[in-house]
Amino acid sequence: MADSSGDASSSVGDPCANLVCGTVDGHDCGSCPQGECVANLACCTAAAVVTSFDTPGDAVNLAVTGGRAYVADYESLRIIDVSDPSAPSELGAAPGSITWDVAVAGGHAYLARAYGGVVVVDVADPGSPSEVGAALDALSIGVDVDGNTAYFAGGSGYDAGVVDVSNPAMPQLLGSVAFTQQVPRVTIEGSHLFVPVEGDGVRVVDVANPAAPVEVGFVESQGYPRDVDIVGNDAFASVAYVGLTVLDVTEPDDPLPRAELMLDDNAGELEGLAVSGGLAALAQGATGVRFVDVDDPAAPIDLGALPIGGEAHDVEIAGDHAFIAAGSAGLVVVSLPQCAS
After folding, report:
1. So where are the chain's domains?
2. CA 104 from centre of chain
């Protein structure tokens, strides 16, 4: 990823100080031996679509782990072998009602289902997945899991809550918190749940006592937060109608704005995101997948968007590839952009 720190030996007044390519004030600051110059800070080879795998429904969300992609395909869960990203193949499927999200841990997939709550599917044998339990007889649109505990977005549509899944056949609701607007997803990190609330910022909920979760911090937003990913002490949020927001969550009960990258290009389509290795990937609807250099979280750099032949709803990064839930286009696999300072 880009290094904007520059060379300490650069002379004072050097117009190319801190730049590695491109031009500034008419001065040539160097060209890229390969790839394109991005924001005068990095030479980047572009991302590219590697392949796609058509699914029978609309791929709206996914989880990627252990060389497999678990795709929430609207009315089913599809399990796809992506150990060779260039040649995905389906291993099995679990039919069901409308499925909005999926998280995977310990041989089980946890599904967020519309009016079906949090559903547990045994995926130990990917060729024969089977539903084993469910909690909540209510709307669920987002889910995350950590160990024996699952976390959901939904309930009444404005809730975030905690489910005990230590017995996958009998998941039990432990507690929940209500918000004033819709909660599209949740992200668990340690004993804190990060909750994007559309039109009401990013909320932080202490779940150390899962039976009594309590909101302890928040950061307001001008747009509609859709997803959050945590890397170290930084929270990255995709915010519809704004762009990418970075928060300092060193103290989760006092999160602080750190940076904001405004995206004027169809920012209203932003949905899921993933962050890994100094790179953020944002699912941006019909625009495709957008990549942002976040090597320096305080100064994110837009690397541009890649059309993928479908509407990008969610994205995961694994190795050198991004895996995208692309609606009617199914699962799309993209090689990551490679940048060098």
Report:
1. 1-45, 46-340
2. 14
* Alpha carbon distances (Å) from 226 to 13, 201, 250, 284, 302: 42, 10, 21, 11, 19
Q: How far apart, in whole angstroms, are the C-alpha atoms of residue 260 and residue 254? A: 18
Q: Is the pLDDT of residue 91 over 90?
A: yes
Considering the segment(s) 46-340 as one domain, its CATH architecture is: 7 Propeller (2.130)
- Average pLDDT score, the chain: 91
pLDDT at 17: 62
Question: Among residues 289, 179, 296, which one has the least CA distance to residue 236?
Answer: 296
In the numeric block, which tokens belong to residue 209?
Answer: 């006592």
Helices (H), 120-189: none
Residues 6+ apart with CB under 8 A from 9: none
The Cα angle at residue 56 between residues 98 and 239, in degrees rounded to 5: 55
Tens-digit pLDDT profile for residues 115-163 = 789 999 999 999 999 999 999 877 889 999 999 999 999 866 689 999 9
Burial (CB < 10 A; 0-12, 13-18, 19+), residue 44, is buried
